[in-house]
Amino acid sequence: MDRPIQPALSQFVLKVHSRCDLACDHCYVYEHADTSWRGRPRAVSEDILAQVADRIAEHARRHQLPTVHVVLHGGEPLLAGPDRIRRAAEELQRALHTVSALDLRMHTNGVLLDEKFCELFLELGIKVGVSLDGDKVSNDRHRRYADGRSSHAKVIRAVELLNRPRYRRLFAGLLCTIDVENDPVAVYDALVALSPPRIDFLLPHATWDTPPPRPGGAATPYADWLDAIYRRWDAAGRPVPVRIFDSVLRTLRGESSLTESLGLAPADLVVIETDGTFEQADSLKTAYDGAPATGMDVFTHSLDDVLQHPGMLARQQGIGQLCAQCRSCPVVQSCGGGLYAHRYRTGNEFDNPSVFCPDLLALVTTIRDREAAVPAPTPTSAELPLDQGDFDALAAGFGGADTVARLAAAQLEINQELLAAVSERIALSDREGARAWELLTDLDAEVPAELDAVLAHPYTRPWALSVLEGRAAPAGGLAEIAAATVLRARLGRSVTVPLRGGALRLPGLGSVRLDGGAEDAEVTAGADGFTVRAGSGRLDIGWHEGLDGPTPRWHPVRLFEGEGWSVAIEDTDPLRDCHKWPVSGRLAADEAKLWAEDLTGAWSLIRHELPAYADGVAAGLRLITPLHAQERSNVSAACKEAWGAIGAARPSSPDLLALLIVHEFQHVKLAAVLDAVDLYDTADRNLYYAPWRDDPRPIGGLLQGTYAHIAVTDFWRVRRRTAEGTSERGAAEAQFARWRQQTAEAVEELLGSGTLTDLGQRFVGRMGHTVRGWLDEPVSGAALTAAAGSAKRHRAEWKARVEASR
């Protein structure tokens, strides 16, 4: 997958106007230490807008950014007027076309927002965030005109306008600056009543030189104020995303923050002022006069130059740039030292905790402890997300066709939900993405079964997650899904699909290699096949054209058809590289034939000798991706996000291929179970002994390995009786003796970990029941001795390595 080269900037605040029509007394631009606004032009010029767009596109191209986020800001950006706002949007769209998707937003006080602006924003794809500090009394405490008049009624009118059905998709959310003199519940209730898509509560900007108000000398008034809202929000079922709460909850789970003011992620934001100068985060204006300045501008410096500024570099270093007190704090992963500007103190500048340190510590620990105090519901048999019979069959290590089919249906539902989440990431300016989503909506109504078949492709979820994590733009994948659905349904429609490195990806069907430097291709289904047009070229491909037929640029997915099982040999999908090992390229015809021959033998062995696994494999294993193993043998892998897929290098025999298949499909099944139920405490950071690994494993890795080795043990258990030749059967017996003992040890390690949930205890207990039943099966004394010796040596060597590493 394409990944940005780090470090990189992906968020840009573009000042289009440097004055404001309100006189908010808590404004950091005009009321705090920095006075640079006085010498800047009121509005940004057209020349600067064009150069800004080119600089951003230059940076996005170099760092392969899938999406660029730009916020039009001020002052008050609406004062720039519709023509200048249009010019800003069109310059950005021009420069970023074919480079990155553009997520364009505006932050406004709302008092000038009207239908004319909203129509412009619909056309240009600009989402709008509005500042509002709550109910009228709370809002009027600070957010007034210079003559003291209230702005509240006009802001409410603006929000009501954004809530109209025509404009609702423009509404990005509400931003509220905290004043602890205001009633927190009244503020929250007033904001929620406006049905915003998101609420962002912001700590007032302050430093150690100018600390925030703490009425009555309260120790943690800001944490207390936010906690009152948290309790009301939580009790109501968390009806709207609240960024500060969601960020704390995410960081407590080890995920990334949603805001720069929390967490340890490197800063990726820069500000461009109306005179074209680059500045660091606007919040630094609260520290001292000139604090955000870089001395650089869009005409003489690139964004990579800006990244080398000492202030920018400091904010790229995660925990390393924090003071000693912060580095030793138990909540540093969530707090992240707070907002950089809030650490400032004359004398040692930013080498301090946040001036809000007591509040941040109290807020994070209160949320953490409250979450921990709520017991995770333990489902009864009737409440299990999985059918009780399915759960028990899978826990034993098996699971037949019906059980695995139900797992597959649950996985498809997850993919459908992820697709809907991806649609929310389509920027209003992303017309290609919007068209693809509209077509998918139509296809879901017309041919839902065909669409579901494409969504069930194992590499749908890795793509969707890459979009949701900001590593890819949505339009290309959506168009690929739509095109594959149209082809499967034989619909006479044309779909335009962006190319990936000159390749047209048709998930589940194959890929078409195209020359000529085209950026996209038009795919059209017909009666006899489909047509691909790219640039001035055209390819006509028959529905039943052979795997290596008359159109050499067409690389269809090869299918292995066994008795009761059809599986794809997926060597075409550009997104298949999500396994531990590198993938092979397109298999040559003779190598594909060897795969088919070995799969014939492997499937025969599984069906006749391992029937407890065969039906599940047939129902759930959709594709095998060939891996490139170099000199290693028996290489295989499963990706937890790619349900229905395994990766494998073709081993030396069909027997070993059968082993790889049942082994890896265990991982696939367990990943689906873990999507449905929690089997262990995900916060457990301890490491455990795994008899098949040289390194200690986290609890999840140990569970996965143990579950997979049930199938490994069973394979050798059977092969000690069915392998050809005495020596082969003897070797299989030794393997069986070894793996049953070591898998039983791993089960005991899991059961003794103290970190399994009640359902996890039940699941692992049934795993143990399966393995313990094999311990009574007779094996030769030589095999027992060899197994005991192997286990003893492995544990002793493992212990020595662990102790040496401490």
From TrEMBL:
CDD domains according to UniProt: Radical_SAM
Signal peptide, first to last residue: none
Keywords of the record: Iron, Iron-sulfur, Metal-binding, S-adenosyl-L-methionine
Span of domain Radical SAM core: 6-243
The organism's place on the tree of life at top rank: Bacteria
Pfam families according to UniProt: Radical_SAM
PROSITE patterns: RADICAL_SAM
Name recorded for this polypeptide: FxsB family cyclophane-forming radical SAM/SPASM peptide maturase
